[in-house]
Amino acid sequence: MSLLFILLTIITTLIFLTAVLKISPFISFILVTILAGILLGMPLGNIVQSFQKGIGDMLGSILVTLTAGAMLGKLVAESGAATVIADKIIAVCGKKYLQWGLLLTGLIIGIPLFYNVGFVLIIPIVFTLSYRYKLPAVYVGIPMLAALSVAHSLLPPHPSPASLVGTFQASMIKTFLYGIAVAVPAIILAGPVFARTLRHIQPQGELPLVEHTVAAHSLPGVFNSIFSALLPVFLLLTTFLLSFIIENKQVIQVLSFIKEPSVLMLLSLLVVSITLGTQQRTSMKHIMRTYEAGIKDIAMILLIIGASGGLKQVLIDSEASIVLAGYFQSLQINPLILGWLIAAIIRLCLGSATVAGLTAAGIIAPLMPHISADPNLMILAIGAGSIFCSHVNDTGFWMFKEYFNVSIKDTFLSWTIMESIVSVAGLAGVLLLSIWL
């Protein structure tokens, strides 16, 4: 049985279980992982070990980050800070240009912030605007999420593109500037332009993380609201800039420690517990109840993310990704398109944009001395390919579906198409730049 047929069977089965039979994605991932291991010839004991390792690795790296972000987001919503920020956005941009304001906000937040953290932080703002102005949540949120996706995949100092800069020995500054040139038209197409077709998509019930009524006198100030909601951004930017200024090794170690996502979010949560909690005369008992409610909102999401990590690990341990990528090494094709294609294929099969990007980079990097391609543009091509066609094996797909409470069909019609537009438009931008440079 060929590897391509096996991978197609795995993806088709996962889609069938979740979309047709309506089985919980968590259970579906477990069943499909077992099927994948058997079809790929792994011993049964190794399948279990790989699945457990995948869950541990996935949740171990993001559990604190996601839960702290969910708690912070819940407090931002219940304290009224999200309402204050939403009002400020409307005042500056107006309802007519709301999506453009959200797009810019998403891009600014996304450059320094990890995607999952940025996703959780912007949800209260999106939902508050949706309720207040009676606009579909998907219509409001897609531009900001498109900007977050672009920053995650294309713009250093975000971890994935920054790591590719090292792999290809490229220029961080050039990659960033080229990335901005590619990103702007991509997010305009995938954001405000594409969102016009999504006004009909409605949630299947109530949206989470939003408190509908907050007493006017208890609302925090504008500065406090923005500072608290974006505190992780400010902390990361500050530590990033100080790391270039300060030469003391001990101080640099402290800054590196603070920049760790889990530490960053935990520090932010402690500060926000004061600025939006006790400082607003809210009891600590009520704050903790708010945090408990925030964790409950993402409980199923955490299970799905963990199970998807198990499937990813089985595919990696079976070396399916390496064999699959090897199929494309001998193809006669534009190097930039080849880099995008390898990343896109691995993304389709594994779901992880980071794994897709790093795997594609590992294949292309040894070929760079023998091909005529700008390393900075190759990074962008691979980054664009790594977010192509997000579907049921991607954690972002399920985060979008669960948070926005839409059907799987509507998730495909909104989230999946948005990610694909960003990916294809990104490749087109890279190819245009390659002509001019």
From TrEMBL:
> What membrane topology does the annotation report for this chain?
Multi-pass membrane protein
Q: Name one GO molecular function term.
A: gluconate transmembrane transporter activity
| Entry's localization field | Cell membrane
**Main localization, broad class:** membrane
- Write out the GO cellular component annotations: plasma membrane
Sorted alphabetically, which Pfam families does this protein's record hold? GntP_permease (PF02447)
Record's superkingdom?
Bacteria
Record key words, sorted: Cell membrane, Membrane, Transmembrane, Transmembrane helix, Transport
Q: Which residues cross the membrane?
A: 28-47, 59-77, 97-123, 135-155, 175-195, 226-246, 258-277, 298-316, 336-365, 377-400, 412-436
Q: Is Cell inner membrane there in the keyword field?
A: no
InterPro entries named among the record's database cross-references: Glcn_transporter (IPR003474)
Q: Which family does it belong to?
A: Belongs to the GntP permease family.
- In Swiss-Prot or TrEMBL terms, this protein is called High-affinity gluconate transporter
Q: Which species is the source of this protein?
A: Cytophaga hutchinsonii (strain ATCC 33406 / DSM 1761 / CIP 103989 / NBRC 15051 / NCIMB 9469 / D465)
